[in-house]
Amino acid sequence: MADVRDMFMVHTMMRREFTLLPQLVRDVASGDTERSAVVARHAERLSLALHLHHEGEDIILWPLLMERGGAEASAIVPEMEEQHHGIEAGLDEVSALLPVWKHTARNGESLAVAFDVLCDRLLEHMALEEEEVLPLAEKLVTAAEWAQLGEHSLSNSPKTDLPLVLGMAMYEGDPDVVKEVLSHAPLVARLIMPLIAPRLYARHAKRLYGTATPPRSGRQ
To answer: Domain count of the chain?
Structure first.
């Protein structure tokens, strides 16, 4: 059956990065478009990763749980779907504000507030999902079906971003879970990603946060 530990790893990464994001926006000086471009590119990657993560759940996970989970699934899946709608609305708000700020570095507070709202919704959602949904998935979803969630995100993500996003997840990830995730990758990726991905994230974090070791989420 499904090994849901990879979902906890993804959630930990998203908790950290989305929690830090509003202050990153606020710290950009008005008119500093070089810096706003760096922060905005990071925000774009995160936003796409979150959208694809939830889209995979909408397409794959919720139907499986509703088909097999009876009253337990009926009690929680509609709430998950409703929270996804709220998070997607938050992503839409961010997407509307981000391009102008990226190119002008002006009126950043509106964007920071939009990220605050998005982050609050996301944190609430992930906590409930971990408490109510993942135990159901462990009982009802096969390993092959669970793997389709990751495949959905991978197949729809820019290939050039994948090593960095993996490095983001590995930063606080359980090495055993990382090893399990990579076990499904081609041999070359299994060999080089454990070396390349953390270095890419360390370099990215240094440029973004001023340190290769940004504050951890505190959740594993």
So the answer is: 1
